[in-house]
């Protein structure tokens, strides 16, 4: 396991302070605010630790209320809403400086027999045929803006391979769809709860950028202010977050400085393992006067 993946697992291994009360830390890497995917993943870990391991999560719905401060710990307070025969519900509140910065509801469900169908996986090149992140950084001199190349080449616990980088080269409106392959940067333990938390972490990494494709813009533009407002994730089938997963994204709507995006996550074998939805702020910065 690489050091940066081990660091992610350490960040997800929350400290239990009391019954239903946990404390999480953030990596000290100079970011001005806590990454939203980290808060989603830590909140999921906190909630899951109050539910029997035989009952996995099937959905979560979250709101980002305030930007998190990476310099201080985050307190996660879990409320036990319901423990039913088949379903369990938890509510989690993340607190910093005496204020709620995040709130999330999580539902858990016992595995049952029933109807089954799924959407078809879109066509995409195999991840091995795509350039690795270091090659993307080197390609910055060929026209890819440095902030974009640096983002995809940054050492991180999640390896990313965008299927196409054309929209970063030619800045023009396009159909608001994109795809990226992702996986943990090294093998993970077999515990399914870890894979669910790692995927929850990863789903916030590229989704909001899909809302700007139709406008020929990206979240990397210096005159663009962007932030996740809410996040929803549904787990459909078992998966491993350390195997390549295709994250197919689209944006049906943007209006009033808010953009809405959806994502479907497939295994290489074509199994739909998760679905995602998110709305975020996409606000052009006003020129300084």
TrEMBL record:
* Organism whose genome encodes this protein: Methylobacterium durans
UniProt family annotation: Belongs to the C/M/P thioester hydrolase family.
Q: Under which EC number(s) is this enzyme classified?
A: 3.1.2.20
Q: Name one GO molecular function term.
A: fatty acyl-CoA hydrolase activity
Top class in the EC scheme: hydrolase
User: What keywords is this UniProt entry annotated with?
Assistant: Hydrolase, Lipid metabolism
**Which NCBIfam families does the record associate with it?**
tesB
Could you tell me what reaction this enzyme catalyses? a fatty acyl-CoA + H2O = a fatty acid + CoA + H(+)
| Complex and partners | Homotetramer.
Q: Which InterPro entries does the record cross-reference, listed alphabetically?
A: Acyl-CoA_hotdog (IPR042171), Acyl_CoA_thio (IPR003703), HotDog_dom_sf (IPR029069), TesB_ACOT8-like_N (IPR049449), TesB_C (IPR025652)
Any idea what this protein is called?
A: Acyl-CoA thioesterase 2
Name a single GO biological process. Answer: acyl-CoA metabolic process
Domain spans labelled Acyl-CoA thioesterase-like N-terminal HotDog: 31-108
In this protein, which residues make up the domain named Acyl-CoA thioesterase 2 C-terminal?
Answer: 151-281
Name the PANTHER family for this protein.
ACYL-COA THIOESTERASE, ACYL-COENZYME A THIOESTERASE 8
